[in-house]
Amino acid sequence: MTHFFSVLGIWLGALFTFAIFSFLYKDNPFYKIAEQIFVGLSAGYWFVYTIFFILMPNLFNPLLQDFAVNWIKLIPAVLGILMLLRLIPSIDWVSRFPIALVIGTTSGIFFLRYLKSDVINQLTATIMNPFHGANWVNVVGQILLIVGTLSGVIYFYFSKKHEGAFGVTAKIGIYFLMVSFGAAFGYTAMARISLLIGRLQFLLGDWLGIINP
Amino acid sequence: MKRKIPLIITFVVGVVLIFAEFIPHKPFGLISGELEKWYLIIAGFAIILGQLNLFKVNLFKIRYKQQNWQYFILTLVSFSVMVLCGIFWGTQNNPGVFGNGAAIATAMGDKPFDYLFLNVYQHLSATMFSLLAFFIASAAYRAFIARTTESNLLLAAAILVMLGNTSMGSILTGWLPESLKFLHLPRISEFIMKYPNTAGQRAIMIGAGLGIIGSSLRIILGIERSYLGGK
């Protein structure tokens, strides 16, 4: 029985792989079927994941194990239920209360998190002695790092017109941003191609057995 | 009441969380810790709301026989099957309503939820993203037409990073003498990633960070209210 399900799993994987790849020719019913199954399974997966890995350990288990200590968790539970009332149009305004709490918490957390990690820490890492390097390549790199970061930040300052010395600095900033986007593109392309190689390995190895997976 | 109370909640929660960072004494630490746990629980309900809404939207599409409505039956069926498998027999380390599902796991090799995840979901997900390899190539063909200095830089950085991370890069420049090792493609790729790329990323991070701080303040102070809706 296990062997049957193992073989069925491989065949299902192969058929869905072909169904998705059929989109390369043109949009067709096989692709649409696979696409909708993907959407449904994704939603189902996250639904179950949320119950088992978020709500059970943080809400249901504490309430069931020691209600006297954890009764305060009833408040977010009630707010969570109010959130679900958004599905009923006549009383959907009730969901504003939990949304307000989520938005307020997110704003408070993000304010501090981004201030520390994305502003202060990045500036601290940039303020360094560029000439303190093991070799000339490091020194050049560190100078580029400082110039690139500062000019890039200047580019994002839109309250002043980009002209004169300010405009030139902003232009240098764009060049650094372009290199950064190019590198990001290169990495993304490689990641996608490695996924494609993985699919081909599955088809030729696990499914057809032509190569060793 | 419909708008003022949510604004007050947002203000109080946001201010308490910011103050708690600077006042490491009771009750601020406790309150902020508890609020973060509440946030997690409510966010969990928000995810469930999203899934239920997807179910509702698809149900309406089928009911009113919108274009391609037949395919949305599959969405509902696959969603229901995945949810029921998870709830009835649980996941790898979590028992479901019917217990740990040892018998069915022995027969299938995995629990039904994990079986669907490994044999259908993972394949669909990997193939869907690998499909982008083809589209990214065609997009690059159009985007990388080297007309300006900016597009030249983008093109050069992408090519050098890609070549430097493959064996082709080592083969192409492996013959270079020791004195010119800095021109070795893997080293150029590493240099680009370590310095100019980091500089660009840092500029973006600082810019985005300042933007997020500004937006957070606007929300906490009640200047930004779009999350409350139009009514």
Question: What is the topology?
Answer:
The complex is a heterodimer of chains A (213) and B (231).
Chain A: H1 2-21, H2 29-65, H3 67-70, H4 74-84, H5 96-126, H6 136-155, H7 164-207
Helix pairs in contact in A: 1-2, 1-7, 4-5, 6-7
Chain B: H1 4-22, H2 28-63, H3 69-89, H4 102-108, H5 112-143, H6 149-164, H7 167-173, H8 185-194, H9 196-220
Helix pairs in contact in B: 1-2, 2-3, 3-5, 6-7, 6-8, 8-9
Characterise this structure.
- The complex is a heterodimer of chains A (213) and B (231).
- Chain A starts with a helix and ends in a 6-residue tail after the last helix.
- The model of chain A has no long low-confidence stretch (mean pLDDT 93).
- Chain A is extended.
- In chain A, helix 1 packs across helix 2 and helix 4 crosses helix 5.
- Chain A is mainly α.
- With 231 residues, chain B is mostly helical.
- Among the domains of chain B are: 62 residues, no CATH class; 66 residues, no CATH class.
- In chain B, helix 1 crosses helix 2 and helix 2 packs across helix 3.
- Chain B is extended.
- Chain B starts with a helix and ends in an 11-residue tail after the last helix.
- The mean pLDDT of chain B is 91.
- The chains are: A mainly alpha (213), B mainly alpha (231).
- Chains A and B meet through helix 1, helix 2, helix 4, helix 5 and helix 6 of A and helix 1, helix 2, helix 3, helix 4 and helix 5 of B.
